[in-house]
Design goal:
Pfam families: LPG_synthase_TM. It is a multi-pass membrane protein. The protein has one domain. By secondary structure, it is mainly α. The chain has twelve helices and no strands. Helix 11 crosses helix 12. The longest helix is centred in the middle third of the chain and has 32 residues.
Length: 320
């Protein structure tokens, strides 16, 4: 069995990401205080009615349940009958993703898959890749729809060119690319991961459609929740709020961000609104408060799920 210290979140090789993440976090605290003021930021919550906050929190919780069900469905039949354990894994993984700097939280998914279900690290990592591919499919579609509302001609051109580019890549792969890849000297090194991706992919068209639906519904619940919070704190239209929220959500794929996603979330939220001319100190305060809602909700869910008992696999069950 591999040395457990190799996977510690505070190992020496992760010192640089933690250092950069903490520096970004401190810079974010100072910047918000200088531009907006933390007193003014927190004051916005006085206008938040419980009639908005509670439904938003319920929708946010529903998105977490749907994400867990997506993992459960994608990993059938291996995890059949263990949804509660999958829910704990999913919530703790999302919590780590939201809290740890520089994408370190992603590493918790294969670790917990091994700890809870005796799934090897390579298989756990491959399943994580498929989850991220599903997220990118839905996120890309939502971005296209949102910006087509503000820039219809540009969005239509971008979608057309993007589709053409993907079709050309697929045609190239089918004709010469696959053979070139197999014959290349580095193929033996990546072949095990390619095989893992094949083995962990949706095994039927019906399963693929199901996990796409779960992904869409989970994104829908989360975006609806964040739009409710955004509009309660600031007078924005639904599509304006959606543009900012989508920008912030897409920041999660960036490799560089501070502790608890500080800095990149706020910058991406403002970047989503910049093309439609919505930039101000109030928008920065709004982005910070939206981020605080996410961190508060994910911390609450992680605390609740932390106490869920999970039967540990035996030593004989564990595979590398």
């Amino acid at each position: 069995m591999q040395n457990a210290t190799q996977y510690k979140l505070f190992s020496k090789r992760k010192l640089l990401p933690w250092t950069v993440g903490i520096l970004i976090f401190i810079a974010m605290l100072v910047t918000v205080e200088y531009i907006v003021g933390w007193t003014a930021v927190f004051a916005q919550w006085k206008t938040m009615p419980l009639s908005t906050l509670i439904p938003a929190l319920i929708l946010f919780a529903a998105s977490y349940l749907l994400r867990a069900w997506r993992i459960y469905d994608l990993c059938q039949p291996d995890l059949k009958g263990r949804f509660i354990s999958v829910l704990k894994l999913s919530v703790l993984h999302l919590y780590a993703n939201n809290m740890l700097p520089m994408r370190l939280g992603e590493g918790l998914f294969p670790i917990l898959m091994k700890r809870y279900f005796a799934v090897g690290f390579a298989e756990g990592f491959a399943r994580l890749i498929w989850l991220r591919v599903l997220d990118l499919i839905i996120a890309g579609a939502l971005v296209a729809v949102t910006f087509s509302y503000f820039f219809p001609l540009f969005s239509l051109l971008a979608v057309g060119l993007g589709t053409l580019f993907m079709l050309l890549l697929y045609a190239l792969y089918r004709t010469k690319g696959r053979q070139w890849l197999i014959q290349h000297s580095f193929y033996p090194k990546i072949e095990p991961m390619i095989n893992q991706l094949k083995n962990t992919a949706p095994q039927s068209r019906r399963q693929f459609i199901r996990v796409i639906i779960w992904t869409f519904l989970s994104w829908g619940c989360k975006l609806a929740s964040l739009i409710m919070i955004t509009r309660a704190l600031q007078s924005l239209s639904v599509f304006e709020a959606l543009a900012g929220v989508l920008g912030a959500e897409l920041s999660s794929i960036l490799p560089i961000h501070g502790v608890a996603g500080s800095g990149s979330f706020e910058a991406a939220f403002m970047a989503g609104l910049a093309p439609i001319g919505l930039l101000s100190t109030d928008i920065l305060g709004l982005a910070v408060n939206l981020h605080l809602f996410i961190l508060g909700a994910t911390s609450l869910f992680a605390l609740l799920c932390f106490w869920i008992p999970v039967a540990k696999p035996t030593r004989e069950d564990i595979s590398i």
